[in-house]
Amino acid sequence: MVARSASVADPRWSPSGRRLGWTVAHDGRADVVVAPADGSGPPVVVTADTGVGGGWCFASDDELVVAGADGRLHAVPAAGGPPRPLTHEGRAAAPAVSARGEVAFVCERPQACDVAVVPLDGSQWPRRVSAADYAWDPAWSPDGRLLAWHEWDLPAMPWDGSRIVVRDADGRAAPVAGGADVAVGQPRFSPRGDRLAYVCDADGWATVWTCTPDGGDAAPVLREACEHAEPAWGPGQRSYAWSPAGDALAWCRNESGFGRLVVAPPGARSARELSKGWHRGIDWGAAGIACVRSGAVTPPQVVVLAANGSARRVVARGPVGGFEAAGLVEPRAVSWRSGTADVHGLLYRPAGRPSPPLLVHVHGGPTGQALADWNARVQWFVSRGWAVLAPNARGSTGHGRAYTQALAGRWGDRDVADVAAGVRHALKEGWGDPRRVVVMGGSAGGMTALLLAARHPDLVHAVITPYPVTDLLDLAATTHRFESGYHLRLVGPLPDARDRYVERSPLTHADAIRAPVLVLHGDRDTSVRPEQSAALAARLGAACERVVYPGEGHGWRRAATLLDELTRIEAFCARWLPG
């Protein structure tokens, strides 16, 4: 079931509300489907294999604009039919159609990532309207005269410092929110066009704010010590939405890794709960709030919620049926001390197992978070009798800007110390068997896992690591453009900090790793080159098993790869762990 499950995403109402569309992704492809909003008919595949993550939108009730797997932007009839290409260069994403018949979209090329505009009828070539190193998530005002987007300049990442820019009908563009040390994102005009909403961490938490279109009268919708968005690892995130009347907003609140959909008018002192769980791709129409709802024991579903919270209708499921009968486990939030800091995490415990093997599941990023959300791999371990500790070391999101920025200059140091403290705390509390501790992490999480095994060999009995960072100098020289300056804040400027890069690279400490290691890598990974794991495997020798998956990149898309991964993990653990 884990290997063959699908996912659903990006639900959207048509302009009249008569239709609802969403994407269904499985085995490396994604289809856009559209169905009558009242459920009177089955979903129809409008366009097949659009690629994963490009995005789409309604241009009208009868036409869609889709970012296709070929990288181009296409106009497609809502009832299905031949697509009409609108672009021919770059990779398109996150389209938005104006009342004036223009399509704004993200156009990414090897050395640029711009917001561009093209007429819906294809009568002109696209024209670039942004000027920053990166620009995402264009959004039109209701009358089509104003265009807003999210932008930033390298070497910053969007969660370090970024801007919301608004461009008028005469082509004048100016920033209205954000800055060098303020992270913003997801601009969205109110239905009347008199307010602009966006996510902002100016007060220490990434919450929804609103302002006038020129940036005046800026204030959070609700001041609270919770985050309302996840880090901007790609365009198209929709963690909040305006009400159709523009008098309230709905957003998904992050409560120590647990999600909750709430509603409040701007300036409120509290918010009203609508639904527990993680809610993404939020779109509020006259018929209700459409979104993808999920949770630790709830596979992703496209749902429509009544705005008063009185009803919830499931429109489509992602994974195949059967998961609910598999003994799924809800985690609980835990914390521990690491030096003088409080560190957070989630703990999953199998029923009826007093001393289970312990999997320490380290998230990637490192600007990410372990969430109480659907994770079939984690539930697969729990169903086999494992306890799972998912640490959110300093540098993780979900606990405020200061917590995330605490990893600046300390990657490969502070995160390792925090996870080591978490393992010791778990064993002291009796959450797992001290003879059977396995650490698993991919990418940045793989770097943390390997350094933990090298520096704390008494804690780690095996390591499982997909596409790990093993050589920070190689990463700095070869990673893709989006993350090309990431290391400067996390480790330090080069060449001055060169010794730090060497010292914090797992490859430097390979001789100190005593635990067996399973390494998995895709041969098309452009974020972390497969040569990094090859160099590590060569240093570790017989205690390392390395597998390379043809056609895979930085993460698995194919069902066959997922199935092979789980099969190898089970055999690896059976071979190296007692009992």
Characterise the protein shown here:
The chain has 579 residues and is α+β, with helices and mostly antiparallel strands. 15% of the residues lie in helices and 36% in strands. It contains nine helices and 36 strands. The strands form eight sheets. An eight-stranded mixed sheet has the order 29-30-32-31-33-34-35-36, sandwiched between helices. Strands 1-2-3-4 form a four-stranded antiparallel sheet, with no helix packed on it. A four-stranded antiparallel sheet has the order 5-6-7-8, with no helix packed on it. Helix 3 (414-428) packs across helix 4 (444-455). The longest helix is centred in the C-terminal third of the chain and has 18 residues, at 559-576.
Please give the oligomerization state of what you see: single chain
Helical content (DSSP H or I, runs of 4+):
10-25%
Question: Which residues sit in consecutive blocks of at least 5 with pLDDT less than 50?
Answer: none
Total domains, how many?
3
* Number of continuous helical runs: 9
Q: How many whole angstroms does the radius of gyration measure?
A: 23 Å
Distance between the termini: 25 Å
Strand order of the largest sheet: 29-30-32-31-33-34-35-36
Number of strands: 36
Given the helix and strand composition, which structural class is it? alpha+beta
| CATH C-level label of the largest domain | Alpha Beta
User: Beta-sheet strand percentage?
Assistant: 35-45%
The mean pLDDT is: 95
